[in-house]
Amino acid sequence: MIYESEHGNTEMIAKAISGQLSGDVSVVRARDASPSDLTGRDVVIVGAPTYGGRPMPPMQAFLDKLPAASLKGVRVCAFDTRVPSRFAKLFGQAAPKIEAILESKGGSQMIPPEGFLVKGTKGPLVEGELERAAAWGKVILGKLG
Q: Which of 41, 81, 121, 122 is the most buried (most CB within 10 A)?
């Protein structure tokens, strides 16, 4: 799993998701990751905060570095953290954009992108979102079997 987090909310979501998975699971910040971290993976999960309707810059930079077709044959999942608001709906969310980039690199969608809510730019997470993230991780695990 590759994630980026500015205030810790997306990191908590990433850990809640990864805590439901089994096998060789690595959880790496985008700013510390390289495309080689995805080599040999059957499933790649990517998440970031929504920043101006897009993934925040360190995640966007990581995604931009992925070579064409580098995810061929890999199942991909995308998530984001977002503030619930009309403006967010107007500008869009990060998860669908992350998913589109992963698919453009050859990945195939495993489950639809998911958004997890924060109360404000710095958080905290809306009550129940960690549990929802764990449930989303269980759905991913169920699709692996």
A: 81
